[in-house]
Amino acid sequence: MREAAPAERAGTARIGGRALARTGYGLGNLARAASSGAEGFAAGMRLLRQARELGVAFYDTAQYYGAGVANRLLAQAFRDPQDDVFYASKVGAKPLPDGPVPMTAAQRPQELWEAVHENLRALGTDHLDLVYL
């Protein structure tokens, strides 16, 4: 029997029939830091890989985090299916970079469909394990 990775020592939870460590990683702040240039992006990828080595499999993202940087980080950090990551992403909003507020609703069926498919393309995968609306 293998020893539990550090992230798994806090226990597991079942999501969609899959047992995951209770510790996950949200990419909102990392995307902002990784947007600072090539060095920041490389550091972000190292951090994600280290988190996976420690047992983190649940990654919470959104295509609008860092104007797509979060999903690019995930796509490049976890190219191998054996990385076995769990993708959780948000749809239903879109950024308004020059607007009076940072986001606006994008909740019509076509907008939701487009947002899901934009996530799939950016992540380089054919599935999202969890989609937040």
Description:
- The protein is an alpha/beta fold and 133 residues long.
- Helices cover 35% and strands 22% of the residues.
- It contains four helices and eight strands, in the order βββααβαβββαβ.
- β4, α3 (69-77) and β5 (86-90) form a beta-alpha-beta unit.
- α1 (28-34) runs antiparallel to α2 (38-53) and α2 crosses α3 (69-77).
- The longest helix has 16 residues, at 38-53.
- The radius of gyration is 15 Å and the shape is globular.
- The termini are far apart.
How helical, in percent, are the residues?
25-40%
C-alpha-based Rg, rounded: 15 Å
Q: What fraction strand?
A: 15-25%
The major sheet is characterized as: 4 strands, parallel
Report the strand count: 8
What is the CA-CA span between the terminal residues? Answer: 38 Å
Alpha-beta content class: alpha/beta
